[in-house]
Design a protein that fits this description.
It is a single chain. By secondary structure, this protein is an alpha/beta fold. The protein folds into 2 domains: 136 residues, no CATH class; 161 residues, 3-Layer(aba) Sandwich (Trna Endonuclease, Chain: A, domain 1), CATH 3.40.1350. Helices cover 47% and strands 20% of the residues. It contains 9 helices and 12 strands. It has a 5-stranded mixed β-sheet, sandwiched between helices. Strand 5 and strand 6 form a beta hairpin. The radius of gyration is 22 Å and the shape is elongated. It starts with a helix and ends with a helix. About 3% of the residues have low confidence.
Length: 303
């Protein structure tokens, strides 16, 4: 390779990395100001309180919060990791107090370390911290699995209701081809109008693991010749752009959906945390409508 051309490529790479770092620093600084305004907003005028019925909850800047909770509360403006960076800096600067609490799971055998945050001027916080830990404890492995299965059930129900056919569930095989590079599989393979979709469902607060996302949504669907679809509570917006590049789609439903019968629990957790939770018998009116519009566009594009 020409030496001058190589220097040119290296310069472009360095400039790109520098701009990325600069952009991240700008976003983190903005997130820090936003987080502080939330914690010190005793009149509860912050934009987070403008959602739904949030103003009528028990949450205020004097409350205790945990790490994932704050990432979710601010996710409409900042990636989860940028909120995490902002919190680290605010703690280092003495603007917020961070400490860890041990939390045993329902079996009493396993201990999780929970990262909690509060304002430095809040002296009486132990009762609130205990309530937050109780809310976190609801999300044990069994309950999260139940929510995952409920998310898959609602996705399947939505597809069947709209005359899609379910070809297979929890599979890595399609049309005599089998994905064998890893032990991953897809939640659903479905079809309608001679179009075939590989679907992964995530009903949880955290982003889907990036490597898992790549393998399931890109690699497996590409190998099996399926149109990739990720049905998720939430995801970084750039995933939509990446998925579009593969002809795929995100179906976002915003709130973690509890199985029917857990209405009181959902309200209790929302009241104490403002986390987006609900019981529901469907995913999302808007998300489902946009998916069906996209499918109709696929019919025109592929046929």
């Amino acid at each position: 390779m020409n030496f001058i051309y190589l220097k040119f490529l290296i310069k472009i790479k360095l400039n790109h990395n520098f701009l990325h770092i600069l952009q991240t620093r700008t976003i983190v600084k903005k997130a820090k100001r936003d987080i502080l305004s939330f914690f010190y907003d005793d009149e509860r005028l912050h934009w987070i309180y403008n959602y739904g019925d949030n103003l009528n909850s028990s949450v205020s800047g004097k409350s205790v919060f945990y790490l994932q909770q704050l990432k979710v509360l601010f996710e409409n403006k900042y990636f989860h990791w940028n909120t995490g960076f902002a919190l680290q800096e605010l703690v280092a600067e003495g603007e917020l107090i961070n400490w860890k609490e041990n939390l045993r799971d329902v079996s009493g055998k396993n201990i999780k370390r929970i990262s909690l945050y509060r304002r430095p001027d809040i002296r009486y916080f132990k009762k609130n911290a205990k309530k937050i830990l109780e809310c976190i404890n609801y999300f044990d492995e069994n309950f999260n699995k139940a929510c995952g299965r409920w998310g898959e059930f609602l996705t399947e129900h939505f597809l069947l209701k709209n005359e899609f056919r379910i070809i297979d569930r929890h599979t890595n095989k399609f049309n005599d081809k089998k994905w064998e590079d890893t032990d991953h599989d897809l939640d659903l393979i479905t079809t309608k109008d001679d179009l075939y979709y590989g679907i992964e469902v995530k009903n949880r607060f955290e982003y889907m693991d990036k490597e898992e996302f790549k393998i399931k949504i890109y690699d497996i669907c590409s190998y099996l010749n399926l149109i990739p679809v990720c049905v998720s509570r939430f995801a970084p917006y750039y995933w939509l752009k990446e998925l579009s590049g593969y002809g795929g789609r995100l179906l976002i439903f915003k709130r973690k959906i509890f199985p029917l019968g857990f209405e009181n629990l959902a309200h209790e957790i929302w009241d104490a945390t403002l986390l987006p939770v609900q019981t529901s018998n469907h995913l999302s009116d808007r998300g489902e409508s946009l998916f069906l519009q996209w499918h109709e566009q696929n019919i025109r594009n592929f046929h």
